[in-house]
Design goal:
With 141 residues, the chain is α+β, with helices and mostly antiparallel strands. The protein has a domain of 78 residues: Ribosomal protein S16 (S16 Ribosomal Protein, Chain: A), CATH 3.30.1320. It has four helices and five strands, in the order ββββαβααα. It has a five-stranded mixed beta sheet. It is rod-shaped. Keywords: Ribonucleoprotein, Ribosomal protein.
């Protein structure tokens, strides 16, 4: 039997309240559990003592038996000093997607074209006098 230390949701709509429980991994989230280890109230301030209430001795017992904590419960156990949670590293998370990259390239191309047009020397037009005789010759023929 695979045991999990996980959260079981309670509370009303838009007012969550969680119980920290030991449950079989196959049982539903809010369904049958073996033992209740504590509570988690996300509506309280982060520095409030009542936000996370956890029976550390029982948690140590269940960890020794082989129960695996979920990510959120592992954070609580790390804060309590029971387990050490390794920081995750996902360097690709901050990178923009394909569409955003294409839009950025198009915008950069437009800015570069505008700068080039702004900095390009102006082409002087031929004086009107020189162009006029050529037009007269073409009309005479």
């Amino acid at each position: 039997m695979s045991l999990k230390i996980r959260l079981a949701r309670g509370g009303t709509k838009k007012r969550p309240f969680y119980q920290i429980v030991i449950a079989d991994a196959r049982s539903p989230r809010d369904g049958r559990f073996i033992e209740k280890l504590g509570t988690f109230n996300p509506l309280l301030a982060k520095d409030n003592e009542g936000r996370v209430v956890l029976d550390i001795e029982r948690a140590k017992h269940w960890l020794a038996v082989g129960a695996q904590p979920t990510d959120r419960v592992l954070r609580f156990l790390d804060a309590a000093g029971v387990l050490n949670r390794e920081a995750r590293n996902n360097p690709d998370k901050g990178k923009p997607g394909e569409k955003a990259t294409q839009r950025a390239e198009e915008k950069a191309a437009k800015v570069a074209a505008a700068e080039e047009a702004k900095n390009a020397p102006k082409v002087e037009e031929a004086p009107v006098e020189e162009a006029a005789p050529a037009a007269e010759e073409a009309a005479a023929e």
